[in-house]
Design a protein that fits this description.
The structure is a homotetramer. Chain A contains three helices and seven strands. Chain A has helices at about 25-40, 45-50, 125-135; strands at about 1-10, 55, 55-65, 75-80, 85-95, 100-110, 110-115. Chain A has a five-stranded antiparallel sheet. In chain A, strands 2-7 form a two-stranded antiparallel sheet. In chain A, a hairpin with a 5-residue loop joins strand 5 (about 85-95) and strand 6. Chains A and B meet through helix 1 and strand 3 of A and helix 1 and strand 3 of B.
Chain lengths: ~140, ~140, ~140, ~140
Amino acid sequence: MFTKEIEIRVRYAETDQMGFVYYGNYATYFEVARVESLRALGMSYKELEKSGIMLPVLEYNCKYLKPAKYDDLLTIKTTIKSIPTARIFFDYEVFNENKELLTIASTTLVFVQAFNKRPCVAPEQFLEQLRKYFHQNQ
Amino acid sequence: MFTKEIEIRVRYAETDQMGFVYYGNYATYFEVARVESLRALGMSYKELEKSGIMLPVLEYNCKYLKPAKYDDLLTIKTTIKSIPTARIFFDYEVFNENKELLTIASTTLVFVQAFNKRPCVAPEQFLEQLRKYFHQNQ
Amino acid sequence: MFTKEIEIRVRYAETDQMGFVYYGNYATYFEVARVESLRALGMSYKELEKSGIMLPVLEYNCKYLKPAKYDDLLTIKTTIKSIPTARIFFDYEVFNENKELLTIASTTLVFVQAFNKRPCVAPEQFLEQLRKYFHQNQ
Amino acid sequence: MFTKEIEIRVRYAETDQMGFVYYGNYATYFEVARVESLRALGMSYKELEKSGIMLPVLEYNCKYLKPAKYDDLLTIKTTIKSIPTARIFFDYEVFNENKELLTIASTTLVFVQAFNKRPCVAPEQFLEQLRKYFHQNQ
């Protein structure tokens, strides 16, 4: 199991008139969280795209337990629970500074060859890095 | 069962460098779709908030089948399948101009009293309007 | 002089916790306003990009006179005051339903060839359409 | 003169299908830049709002010199060139990792009492902090 924590400060632009983070804006936080997870595993998503592989989102599920507020310094904990094949699953938990769990979410993404949009296996170098974390934890 | 269709044209701002609508931007389309559904049922969400009732999102699930593209004139079909109590469930389908189904989603929202953030039943006038559609279809 | 009015309803996503439209979100309204202006002149921006010409923004100026609010049905009035060469200038005025002027803005964009990013003249067919409006008004 | 530099990494959500940061998204970067400038001067914008003072934007001007790209680690340099009265002026410069100047912008904001929306002078404690930087530089 691989886990990675990042911090994101809530921007004013991300709030709505309810005074909370707009429900649609968490998707961006999770994008940042998984891109930084990949980076921690030696994979730059930018470089991945340049190499001809894209990673679109197939499915996204999110539960809103408590609201995040303006200027909150959120901690996003990302977990990869299984070695990906063509598909890769991320789980996310969002905490505020009081360690309250605000949001639980998951996404399914698929490695796709840009030129034909067909699914492909995750890059071997990335899998190698990822396997280390699984060995460590098992 | 109540259904309502609206059209939304994809803005350039909503695309990403993959050339598609960013996965996080559908949440805004669904917001527009459900607000227009409520309006068609005689309930202005703006007025609802002014009356002291808010309708935050508790849960959001979305499956991305095919990408939406810049300038696509999308049709969002919203369905309310059951009479709400404190919670209200919306289902959404997004189609492009070729009638291709692009996205399937659902949200759970809860009627909440603004002053104490406690769940409350949906306004009676709204339920009355909504019941008509259920009688028609049953 | 060419003018075109469009209507945009303010989305909840576009408000911030001040209860107004976030100052950064007007740029998207102006994008929609100028794209619809181009469409009214027979030019689809989507088709323009497909033909190998892009129209990036060089400069953007905006004055916020009064706030726009959630669910406001805004009227955006777009004006093209001069026949474009490589550069095209748009002026915008945003009104609410009470005809109050909320925002004044202007943008400068440049026609650019996608393959070498070099400025180029506006498509002749578009200029032809645009000239009609100038003859009409002079 | 007060200057403050912050770093912002470009999110995928912030790009558009041109492959660059969407022109409307810089406004959010400048929001972050000025809020962090205020924080460096001992003023939390969140606390300012709680104390009954808001700081809406009156005017925003932006020149786009070169595009910012996905995953770029941008440096935003914010400058306050004069001691504010009711109005406060911020200038911004955006650089990429190659020290290329991408964007130049400025905003005018106004200190406003939330209860009557009337302009008011900047908080004395904030002005005191700010004056130090001016003495240092003159």
